Amino acid sequence: MSSMVEQLHTSRQSTDIIAHHFCFSDNDDSLKARNVVGSLARQILEEWLQNAEADELRALHRKTSDVDSAEITDIISNLLLPNVSYYILLDGIDKCPPNEAQEVVACLLKLCQRHRNLKLS
């Protein structure tokens, strides 16, 4: 999986955004839907976060201080740009408890339905 991430980074266009998450059976936090979706969101929004104004960052902090994975998905969806390709690599989702895995899949499906330039692997 890490070689796949590396390959995407070396062959990507300057506007491509790559996010990845590894679920480890010996790390309970990596198996929680909220953390998986939050990790992907942080990577997807990295450039936006770097260029955001202080007021935008404060507003985002207020919105995200106590949200679940579905709400994170809605926030991400509203900030994705139509002219950017997004690549999400997710490994080990089968290690997650079924309810957590289903929640992650539902969130990713929602993002894919809203944004044609989002690809999953």
From TrEMBL:
Origin: domain of life: Eukaryota
Keyword DNA repair included in the entry's annotation: no
Keyword Metal-binding: no
Pfam family, one: NPHP3_N
InterPro entries: NPHP3-like_N, P-loop_NTPase
Keywords: Repeat
Domain Nephrocystin 3-like N-terminal: 1-119
Cross-referenced PANTHER family: AMELOGENIN, NACHT DOMAIN-CONTAINING PROTEIN
Protein name in the entry: Nephrocystin 3-like N-terminal domain-containing protein
Native source organism of the sequence: Exophiala spinifera
